[in-house]
Amino acid sequence: SIMFLVGLSGGIASGKSTVVAVLRELGCAVIDADLIAREVVQPHSKAHQQILQYFGTEILLENGEINREALGNIIFSQPEKRRLLNSITHPEILKEMLKQILKYFVLGYRYVILDIPLLFETRGLTKFMKYTVLVYCDPPAQRARLMRRNGLDAAAADARISSQIPLEEKLQWATHVIDNSGDRESTRRQVLRLHARLEDSLDFLWARLAAGAAVAGLGGLVFLLLRHLIS
């Protein structure tokens, strides 16, 4: 059995969740990195204890969960704190993603889509992906969506957007682009085309690979994970 990984990303308010919803509807295995990121910091987790140790109890909500907004404000303005938080959470997120990838592999899925908001910012992960998909939205539409969705004024929306690598720049790195600047129907058609490409993608090169070599991508991910855990 052969398996490959597909990375999916998009800027803030680019409409990635619409694309994910269609892919799930088509029966794709989608692993949500944001959801995992929330789960690995739940109370009683290893990451939760470490975050408390470094950031103090003032970032807790009354129910003991981490106040993501308070923590977000701290790391937004202090890069060294952001790096510290990443060094606590990333190995845990990676471990959980790997567990889910292996689960789908065992279930016989031929590819898994990894929904990673900052895929292009953390360039290390892209080399494990056979394809990378960018959900694109033109800047004015992205800004308008973000203001509407989060109730932000223009300056706050711009600050959020400019904290990420511009979508224009990410365009050159992605192997596939879904332009979500138009209506839902146009986006849906593009997702259906992408899905057909992924289904056809077990081209003859892959078909000739031995199953052992086919999980080389997974092997690389396992290696990366081990290196994280040891260092």
Residue stretches low in confidence (pLDDT < 50, at least 5 long) are 210-214
Shape: globular
CATH class of the largest domain: Alpha Beta
Strand fraction equals 5-15%
- Note the total helix count: 12
CATH architecture group name of the largest domain:
3-Layer(aba) Sandwich
- Rg on CA atoms, Å: 19 Å
Protein name: Dephospho-CoA kinase domain-containing protein
InterPro entries: Depp_CoAkinase (IPR001977), P-loop_NTPase (IPR027417)
GO cellular component, one term: cytoplasm
Organism: Piprites chloris
What does this structure look like?
A five-stranded parallel β-sheet has the order 2-3-1-4-5, sandwiched between helices. It has three domains: 1-29 and 112-200, Rossmann fold; 37-108, no CATH class; 205-230. The protein has 231 residues and is of the alpha/beta class. The two termini are 32 Å apart. It has helices at 16-25, 33-39, 46-55, 68-77, 79-106, 139-150, 154-162, 167-170, 184-200, 204-208, 211-214, 216-230, and strands spanning 4-10, 30-32, 111-115, 131-136, 176-179. It has twelve helices and five strands.
Q: Quick gist of this model?
A:
This protein is an alpha/beta fold. It contains twelve helices and five strands. Helix 4 (68-77) packs across helix 5.
Q: What does the secondary structure layout of this molecule look like, with pairings?
A:
Blueprint: E1 4-10, H1 16-25, E2 30-32, H2 33-39, H3 46-55, H4 68-77, H5 79-106, E3 111-115, E4 131-136, H6 139-150, H7 154-162, H8 167-170, E5 176-179, H9 184-200, H10 204-208, H11 211-214, H12 216-230
Parallel strand pairs: 1-3, 1-4, 2-3, 4-5
Helix pairs in contact: 1-9, 4-5, 5-12, 6-7
Transmembrane segments: 205-226
Organism: Piprites chloris (Wing-barred manakin)
Protein name: Dephospho-CoA kinase domain-containing protein
